[in-house]
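Standup notes
- HV: blocked on the assembly model, inputs below
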Amino acid sequence: MFQSNTKDSKPYEPTLYTIKGISILDNDGNRILAKYYDKNIFPTSKEQKAFEKNLFNKTHRTNAEIIMLDGLTCVYKSNVDLFFYVMGSSHENELILMSVLNCLYESVSHILRKNVEKKAVLDSLDIVMLAVDEICDGGIILDADATSVVQRVALRTDDIPLGEQTVAQVLQSAKEQLKWSLLK
Amino acid sequence: MSRDFHWLPNIPNIRKMNAFKRDKKEDEDGSNQFQNLEKTTVLQEARTFNDTPVNPRKCAHILTKILYLLNQGEQLGTTEATETFFAMTKLFQSRDVVLRRLVYLGIKELSSIAEDVIIVTSSLTKDMTGKEDLYRAAAIRALCTITDGAMLAAIERYMKQAIVDRSAAVSSAALVSSLHLTTVSGDVARRWANEAQEALNSDNVMVQYHALGVLYQARKSDKHAVIKLVAKLMRSSPKSSYAACMLIRMACKLVEEVDEGSEFLEFIESCIRHKSEMVVYEAAHALVNLGRSGTREIASAVSVLQLFSGSPKPTLRFAAVRTLNKVAMSHPAAVIACNLDLENLITDSNRSIATLAITTLLKTGAESSVDRLMKQIATFVSEISDEFKVVVVQAIRALCQKFPRKHAVLMNFLAAMLRDEGGLEYKAAIVDTIIAVMEGNVEAKEAGLAHLCEFIEDCEHTSLAVRILHLLGQEGPTSKQPSRYIRFIYNRVILESASVRAAAVTALAHFAAACPALLPNILVLLSRCQLDFDDEVRDRATYYCTILQQNADPAILPLVQPPQLSIPSLERALRNYVRSPMDEEFDISQIPPAQAIEEPAQEVLATVKPQQPRLTREENFMEKLLQVPELSAIIHDSILFKSSTVFELTESETEYNVKCIKHCFSDYLILQFDCLNTLSDQFLEDVRVTVDNQDIYTIVCEVPCVRLPYNELGSTYTVLKFPEDIQSTIITLPTTLRFIAHDCDPSTGIPDAEQGYGDEYTLEDLEITVRDQVRGTGSRNVDFSSSWENAATRGFVTTEQIFGLGANVTTLEEAIQSLVMFLGLEPVERSDRIKSGARQHTLLLTGVFRGGKEVLARAKLVLTNHVTMQFTVRSQDLEVAELMISSVG
């Protein structure tokens, strides 16, 4: 981790492949969603899950925001019963990773209407998956602006046929739509 | 009362209640609707996809389940994946946005497992060129995951259009995909560079960033184009912070590679005043890591890092202190200004930050503050993770080198850490450090050995105990009072597992062989070990007893400490020997030594690399050479004596890259030329490197490389036979690369014409040196003086000469280094380390010349204004000895 570059003081090859992994775990350390973008680290899901367990054990008690583990820099953030992680290589700019984590968290928060907890994520898992796909494509940061990510994943407001919605839900969705049209 | 009375029959009720509770609990977090999904059931459900009309909500839910299962690491077989994939393609009928987007995700996930995925190409192409913006970007990205080299041409036109599309999402998707496609076809980026150039002017920050990435990919092999690109962008600094970071990294690379890079360095420094923290940190980080940064650049980097280290954001503090830690390694003085800020971080709630702060302080602090800091660390060392404990240990190791006088305090601290709880890695790091301190500082040896002895009394890690016992066997006999270690070692024989007992027996034997005074007592101990119930322990004890009882003969030491030979080579040689008539004695000096595990000198790693299989470099090469039939015919029953380091015959950025490795056998020299063709519009055939042998070497055969396509490594070999006269083996040979070139289309690699044309390309001269023909014996603890004295009786000849070394050698270290480098002999008895400030030194070298001729050499060095050397060589072969002398002169 504190790998000194003295031996090959060459700077690392500039590349857009910045993100090594993104994961969302629940409060028992179980995976809700995880993507790994570098075939050279954790090639099998067994290794990935072992890493996640280890990562969770090291991070779930302290809210320290950043940790180095297995040669990766991991930034994280938790809320209620969810843990969000973004991983990059140990020489990656920590602030870039943090910006991606913030985008991930804000996008999810927006999709779930600020109700960031496990049940809500699972209920909208399809949209959350799409959001992760819009944030990072194969390790390249595709977009790190939460508003634009949310726009791109096509928030489904007409989720339920109108007849089945409660009055409150209709009102809520109307409000949302109004807000969006004003914001635009 | 009644409750008491009824408690027995109530048991089933309690159980029911428990069950109820569990149900309820499941209900609470059983909100996970995906928890108990069964792969086969879900795949069954996927048949719903075939229904018409498509029910979007239902299908989206099923598809989400499939994606969830895949994400949980569920494996699909090829048939399962293909069936699901085809079912999924039916969903293209629906116009539901979310469902369509999920289908794209499904395509991406399954594209690597399912067969015939290109079936969806037309659907995706339609979406990509359609009107719906929400489809287009995602469709491009899905399409590129199923694209192979053959299909690329078909979608190329659309991709180029997409790159310059008005929609930022579409443009970004196309740019990112073209980077992914470089794995399919190497020069995609280059072909689409014009479009990327246009996209670089986009108003959208992400498009700008992605375009920069593609342009760099396209131009990175052409340094001048990169310089132009960076220089242009430096003037109009990019709006995107990410692009700015990328630009800084590109500038960094140029600073390292280009001689006149000062404008790039200035640019990086100017980024320190950027408005985004991310870019500021990137610039500071870059300046710290650049070898060319001067004091001024480092100082400005340190000043922003100092600012960041007081930030309320943990990530920023972490980044800052981690980089300061790095500065402290190269420029400790520059960090002293931050000492106060670092002191504040010692109590940071993020323990990683605290540890980094302390280790930085240890590096910059004065000798007087060591005691205080060590006390600070002691307060929280138990709280941090093993990985960071290792970092602390390594900081202590560095400290011991810096302040040798503090070794007592530090050694005590290490000993205390050894007693604490901790994993193997952590304990091994401590033991390593103690050993390193002992090696570097004679005064610390006794204390170190004592600490280690105490440690093995209560050590749960077998591998460490074995290592320490081995070390005791090596170092103990030469200590002031060898007898005091015997008790510790013998205790192991009584108490430990078999492998530790075996190691202890060997250690005892070392003491007996080296200290005749202890021999009778140790023999008593060893004879008891002969009753051990483990085979290995008993065998070792019996072996050592027998040898040691044959009385003190200086020749027994090598029997007690056998040289570390490479086992696979030994096996091969013995097999060959058994097949031969066995008239001559088996010559063990032919066997190369096992590869010493080289300890990286400066590397401070927290993660321990997995152990590599112990095949030596030579053995790896031998395997490769034997696969070439022409070579195998010549060398199949000989042993590769030594492979040289890689020798570059071209500059790194020429059209053709040629590197040479010289493989030395006892009579033959195989030259392996690794060639790389960097011209994308050519492929080469019948590539060979002709060597002008100057009538001294005989060329036995040449193995050309049949085909050498663009950017692939090919090898050609030339086999030379050494001349009889050893003196004339040292030579410089002119070399030429000859080949038949075919011009071809850079994108497809298909040649334009049937007939190629012969061409040649002059390479640098190849030198064959002494070093290529000599290697060390691998027995570091060989008793040099006795071999030196006994050399005459074994028929060695001696030659000697006095040299004044050239003006460029001004210190003893340089003299030793260049001598070892040049001759390829191996220093023994740690004689390559000199006491600081010494004016004279004796360097002892051993080695083997090809053909198994032993060489011993002694160089007495005296430093006045320049270095004078008396160089004595003893060898079985007069010619070899003369060669050694003459090549120094």
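- HV (later): unblocked. The longest helix of chain A spans residues 94-111. Residues 16 and 140 of chain A are 6 Å apart (CA to CA).
- Next: hand off to the docking folks.
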